Amino acid sequence: GQEPVQTAARVTPEMADDWYGAVSQMTQDALDEGQGGMWEYSNAERAYWTEMQASVSEPIELGYAGGWSNIIDCVAFLAFCVLAVCITLAPCFSFEYQSGADAVVLSTRHGRGRLVAAKIAASLAYATVYFAACAAIIMGVSLAFFGAEGFGLSVQSIELSSPYPISVGQAALVSVGLMYAVCMGFACLTL
What is the pTM of this model? Predict the structure, then answer.
């Protein structure tokens, strides 16, 4: 229940003799467990994840990356932003049909083609700006209260079992980027 940095501060050299071997064994145990017994990894999958874990550079540099770690922990709150975007975009096309204005607009020379394209462009621009504002709040508060240091630390400093060769800051930015892709996908689905 501790952060890796807290545990590392108490580790003696004798305790850490085969630390990287223990990390490798932890990956193998996770593969053997197969997500709580619900999944059995094939030999190719096991080889892939074993190779990914083996490619993690050693030694793992531990340090403080509280702000970036908090962004990763709080990125799920951006789902509320996605929900708000979907709710606000839902009446984009239906409002004109309900009010009867569509008959006038669509009967013009370029009404149907340009109106639809303009509404889609404006909706996606709105979704982008709204998402950027929400992401800026989450990232800004996290970095303001927890600090921005540790961007370049290996992601293994906050999640030891992660096999990805990226930094903590990159993981935070990738998480926010994936949520942006989800937001755009749901905005398109709503439209």
Answer: 0.78
Contact 157, 5 (CB under 8 A): yes
State residue 16's pLDDT score. Answer: 67
Which stretches of 56-114 are assigned E, i.e. beta strand? none
Question: Is 154 in a helix, a strand, or coil?
Answer: strand
Strand partners, 167: 154
Residues 148 and 65 sit within 8 Å (Cβ to Cβ): no
Structure confidence by residue, pLDDT tens digits, 162-176: 888 889 999 999 999
The pLDDT value recorded for residue 106 is 66
Q: Which residues contact 71 (CB under 8 A, 6 or more apart)?
A: 138, 139, 142, 143, 172, 175, 176
The residues, ordered by sequence, that sit 6+ positions from 148 with a Cβ below 8 Å of its Cβ are 67, 68
